[in-house]
Amino acid sequence: MVAIETHSLSKEFDGVTALSELDLTIEEGEIFGYLGPNGAGKSTTIDLLLDFIRPTSGSASIFGSDVNDDSVGIRQRVGVIPDGYTLFSRLTGRQHVQFAMETKSVDDDPTALLERVGIGDAANRRAGGYSKGMGQRLVLAMALVGDPDLLILDEPTTGLDPNGAREMRQIIREEQARGATVFFSSHILEQVEAVCDRVGILDDGRLVTIDSIDSLRKSVTVDSTLSIELAHPVSNGLERVRTIDGVSGLVVDGTSLLVDVEGPAMTEVLWALESQGIEILGFSTHEASLEDVFATVTGSNNRPEESQTPVTGPDNWVIR
Amino acid sequence: MNAVIVAKKEFQDARRSKTLLALIVLFGILGVSGPFLYTKLLAMQAPTEPITSRGFVMFMAEFIALFVSLSAILLGYKAIAGETESGSGTLLLSLPNHRRDIVLGKLIGRATTFAVPLALAGLGMFAVGWVLIPGLEPVELVVFTLVTVLFGVSFLWLIIGLSAMTKHSGRAATYALGAFVLLEMLWNIVVIGSVYVENGFSFPGEAGTTVIAPYLQNLPPGTAYHNLLEQSLAMISGTAPVAPFPSSLWFAALVLVGWAVVSPLGGYLRFDSIDL
Q: A207 and A66 in one domain?
């Protein structure tokens, strides 16, 4: 059975194409990652699926029902984290979940749901005082109400710290194990690759590739850039770094060091420096972002301003 | 019916809002101070005129109407446009709510919210009036409160309907104030215009009659409120004058209900068709 299907789905806003001829089929039970930079048309797709906006041409269906004809019936079976929502600031977290339960006419345990997403202790606080991450967790709890058959999550890890993003992925896996289908959009590759069975990459309103995460990874090898700030300029001792397996480039500029490196070798680089008594003040990484994958997948390398998107993720620490 | 669930949430939310608190304070003051003002002003301006229950109620109606319509604007102009703009509408529509449920839920929830300060004003007015106005008729105050709530809700729903016409709360504010200025301040120009047009683009002489103008004249919610109150008070005391249909009780009630239905219906049809 097919969870989501679109045929030549297109949307124009005032003559500007936001989504062009999208053909997509998402099978029941899979976790599908919908990738693309900001403005690529991810939210437009989701807004069309949820009937927030109407297509210029083409059609979409969820579980066999047309999204325009039976939007409410569809949303009864779907849990959503939408894009650009605002919480009801004067209602508590619990009241939000209760509202979702009443709307879906299901009996669920709001406390258990709020605990599952990690904000059980804030259940009785007003959502107006929630942080962005807590708000995101609350909306996830609302989406999970009634064990939906499909989860549509628009940038679900926005505002979450690395731990929160990991918990979100864990819940997504649990939901799949229960039998749910998950449609998950993100502009950050690492959020998607850890959890998705298949990914579609969207660029400028067009689906440029759709593949399993494994074959996508095989087709693309990208390095991360590790930038290290040293206490003193160094001249020698860097040879050992150069010879580490996985290091493909090294640039020294005074006390700044830029190392092109594959993920697992990063710690080795740091150890190699420290073991030689080279004092490190701090470091950060620029994760290989979707943009880099894009450049490879689409063969276009003309996005210099975006190709070094710093990623706030587990690989971005600073030490003193 | 999901509209009721949305309305319940709306009321829960509004219960804690500063706007509601402000309205309760405002209408509490108006209700309590009304009887004082009436007796003082009457003593000052028309010392020979007796203090009557009817006179008091009609004074209160004139006194409170402006506050009711302005409060309705305050409470209603962002009802739907604001939700769409801020994104809480997105959250509502991510759940299995029809857009109809959103509009209906807003109408019911906000009307319930508005009824609270209006009813409190009625109570305060009754308590103080009981002391200051000899011969105060409780039934007249009850009628006054009910008719005022009907007027308030009608005006509120007119504004909420306008709010559903746009996604921007700034524009919604313009529509709401525009409607207020047109209906409650500039309406005479419209009426005069209609006479001019109906008379073949010239003004009739003294003897000239028009068919449309009397109806048109009684279309603004404020006028309908006044007519409805006057006619129902006359009816309960058995002194109902034979009013021509355009200024009768039934036409006034029809007008208030009409505004409360037509504007939200138009708003809903628009809201249902647009991209959010």
A: yes
Least CB–CB distance from A103: residue in B13, B17, B95: B95
How many residues in total does chain B contain? 276
What number of CA atoms fall less than 13 Å from residue A212's CA on the CB side?
5
A184 and A266 inside one domain: no
Non-local CB neighbours of B209 within 8 Å, separated by 6+ positions: none
pLDDT averaged over 10-residue windows placed end to end, chain B, 276 residues: 89 87 94 93 88 91 93 94 88 93 95 93 92 90 94 97 94 96 93 86 71 91 95 85 84 96 96 90
C-alpha torsion sign, points B158, B160, B166, B171: positive
Q: List the alpha helices (DSSP H) in chain A.
A: 42-49, 71-76, 93-104, 110-116, 132-144, 162-178, 189-193, 213-219, 239-242, 266-275, 290-298
- A280-286: strand order across its sheet: A247-253, A256-261, A224-230, A280-286
Cα distance between residue A274 and residue A255, in whole Å: 15
A228 and A142, same structural domain?
A: no
Residues A168 and A270 both lie in one domain: no
pLDDT digits (tens, 9 = 90+) for A145-179: 999 999 999 999 888 888 898 899 999 999 999 99
Domain that holds residue A246: 223-287
- Cβ–Cβ contact B182 with A under 8 A: no
Q: Write out the two tokens for B4.
A: 């009721």
Pairwise CB contact (< 8 Å): A142 & B276? no
Contacts of A215 (CB under 8 A, 6+ apart): none
For testing contact with chain B, the best of A102, A108, A142, A145 (most B CBs within 10 A): A102
Residues A69 and A186 in one domain: yes
**B87–A50 CB contact, under 8 Å:** no
How close A154 gets to chain B, by Cα (Å)? 12
Question: Is A54 in the same domain as A193?
Answer: yes
Which tokens sit at B213?
Answer: 């103008």
ipTM of the complex: 0.85
CA-to-CA distance for B81 and B175, rounded, in angstroms? 11
Query: Is position A307 within any domain?
Result: no
| Cβ pair A90:B87 closer than 8 A | no
Residue A120 domain-assigned (yes or no): yes
Asked if residue A227 and residue A176 are part of one domain, the reply reads no
Mutate to test the interface with A, among B4, B19, B90, B94 (most CBs of A within 10 A): B94
